[in-house]
Amino acid sequence: MNTPENTAPWHPVARSADLRPGANIVAGFAEGQELALWRAADGTAQAWENRCPHRSVRFTLGQVIDNRLACAYHGWQYEAGSGQCASIPAHPAMQAPRNVCAKTFGTAEAAGMLWVNLSPEVPPVPDALGGAVPDGWHFCRTLTVRASAGTAREALARNGLAEGPAAPGWRGRLGGTETVALVLDAQPGLAFIHLWTEAAPGSAAMKALHAAARQLRTEIEALPQG
Ligand code: FES
Known about the structure:
The protein has helices at residues 149-158, 204-222; strands spanning 10-15, 25-30, 33-39, 45-49, 63-65, 68-70, 77-79, 85-87, 104-110, 113-117, 138-145, 162-163, 170-174, 177-187, 190-197. The protein is mostly beta strands.
């Protein structure tokens, strides 16, 4: 999808259904930024730098307590939304330091995915995100490939998928099955491809897509890396 110049992209980092309110923390990546993805008890999705601002321990080791994320090391708790330190349980009488904040990023939920924008000034969520996956389609799998996102896109084009002019994602047939591929630039030399399809779970078409996805990964990782 073409984006206006100077507009930071929205990255498809995880499937929305993988984040349960007030429950789990999922590790994510976008453009080399390591993320802690979670959902507050009120349902709002959160994408934070995966480092506690106290002593840099990964937030993914911690736990969600209602609308807060609690670090695993010293237990400091940070508020959903602002990332502000809200409580230091070891010193309940002490005021939480106002200047200690987790680094937070903009999020959007559309087409069954959680999208993250790394820009400090989060741009408006484009309507096009909602059209990335047709209504009623099913999630197949996320393919992890040891290659750049550019190489992954190149391989999708070689396999006859075309980038949508109006919505993000690559659309076409993989293994004979109608598919949308959402490519995530995770890290240098690492890309994720989220595959969605019209095929029903457990169907022969879905199995064909799984087989084609494995073949696609082999093909991508064999390509020269730019
Ligand atoms: S490192 Fe997170 S609370 Fe100390």
